[in-house]
Amino acid sequence: xxxxxxxxxxxxxxxxxxxxxxxxxxxxxxxxxxxxxxxxxxxxxxxxxxxxxxxxxxxxxxxxxxxxxxxxxxxxxxxxxxxxxxxxxxxxxxxxxxxxxxxxxxxxxxxxxxxxxxxxxxxxxxxxxxxxxxxxxxxxxxxxxxxxxxxxxxxxxxxxxx
Length: 162
Ligand code: INI
Prior knowledge:
Layout: E1 23-28, H1 32-48, E2 56-61, H2 67-76, E3 82-90, H3 97-115, E4 119-126, H4 129-134, E5 136-138, E6 141-142, H5 143-160
Parallel strand pairs: 1-2, 1-3, 3-4
Antiparallel strand pairs: 5-6
Helix pairs in contact: 1-5, 2-3
The site of 5-nitro-6-ribityl-amino-2,4(1H,3H)-pyrimidinedione has 16 residues, from strand 3.
């Protein structure tokens, strides 16, 4: 946002152009009806912002708990400029909701910090299926697209900090 308070301040901002990047999308199979919509949202966002389809690699993992380990290997491979991690942890569906959600969340943050590769956080953590559906392409937007957008902006910001 520009305004009088930031006038004449050197500002670094990420341009939302994805052309030429290589992006991995890692997605849990658990709650796959929801996660498919997140994948669709992420890929739609990235291709509409110029990313070539051949530069997207989709990686399927069992569930949210496996996302950090697989994303860590993707990040360390040096083959990707950014990663989008997608999954859906739904409280109603499991008594170990809190463990799965917390470990996946902490793990993904750690991967990003340790590797320096931006990881878009597209993990839904909701109380019920209805809330998940709302955030997977209906009335509350699409968390997959949001995660892709955050990853892209972060990649472009980091490029400028040398
Ligand atoms: N994985 C999810 O992605 N979402 C869930 O809601 C979920 N529940 O309900 O348990 C879930 N569990 C599986 C977990 O991520 C691992 O795949 C599993 O425990 C094997 O390690």
